[in-house]
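FAQ: What does a ligand-bound record look like?

Like this one, built around MU-OXO-diiron:
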Amino acid sequence: MGCFSAVKVTDRVWWVGAIDWNLREFHGYQTGRGSTYNAFLVLDDKVTLIDTVKAPFFEEMRDRIASVIDPAKIDYIVSNHAEMDHSGALPRAIAEFQPEKVFCSVMGEKALRAHFGAALPVTAVKTGETLALGTNTLKFIETRMLHWPDSMASYLSGERVLFSQDAFGMHMAGSGRFAADYDKGVLYEEARSYFANILLVQAPKVAALLDDLAPLLPEVEIIAPDHGPIWCGERAEVLEWYRGFSAGKPEKRAVVLYDTMWHSTEKMANAVADGIIAAGVPAEVICLHAASRSAAMTRIMNAGILAVGTPTLNNNLYPSLADCLTYARGLRPTIALGATFGSFGWSGEGAKQAAEYLAQMKIEQPEPPLSVKYVPDADVLARCRELGGRLGAALLAKLNA
Ligand code: FEO
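The answer part, i.e. the structure of the complex:
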């Protein structure tokens, strides 16, 4: 008997995944609360393992499976997603458990073989195909680009469990396996963070998936994602949150994102924010000394205004801004209005380069970059405040149009 146990989800479904308490980096997403890699064991005439875990966690998964059933009794493995946080342990699971068959999507077949070799014994399935397990039937639903081209979800009729893979997940380690084990505010923030940092680039596809799933959802009782807690009674809330996240509607709020060398750009950022707030729009001031790019991204998603302040360092915008704006540009947030500003010493490229990022992100910039040499005096800070005021008023006019 190993030191890890499975957790019962329903009479026939058990959580057999792994908890990664120390994960702090997930391809650029700084994961402050760690993560879980959820795998699920379905006990039916055909014993089925839904997804696996990251390769180093194979033994933990095997222990949890063995706490319920001899892993050699696994008949099928379903790989809903080829990314290695879910497939890393798949080759070893196939080698040790010797399942009769391994199922994945058509794109999954290509992706898994590209990762683990052409000989990997997988069978491709398409949307609408079903797999009889005995009492239950698995139905496959391809969810391309959520989060990779191969992604799919699997619905277990009978037990009424939707294995949703990355969708509806969050990077959060914890001893509780269910959403009811956590504070709702924490769940919302982590769901929002996951969406902003992983799924935002495909927000229209998420909205389309929610529409596609609509006929199925009334019968779904449990949504079991591949990361974070399992949604039971709270499933309607996470669906509603996803509707909001994926709608791409700029909200009545502003983010003033900046970094600073000698506090000049910081003074400008605070003055811009003060002007925005005075105009009646809530504003958050985020310094990249103090916040990670991922925390910033969570707030940038669907902001009405993004004002960016950057010093000029060696003819360039400040490195932390280059990092965060490159990351944000890739995730394609929908933002109504933008502006840039910043201090410089002997040349002033920073704010102009930041403006190019905002232009590439298709953010309307009604004002040219506001740059100041060395330290902003009272007059410059008044101009920053006025800039914020005009941005705030323009956003209110847009939202009320
Ligand atoms: Fe959790 Fe796209 O992998």
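Follow-up question: can I read anything off the structure? Yes, for example: The chain has twelve helices and 21 strands.
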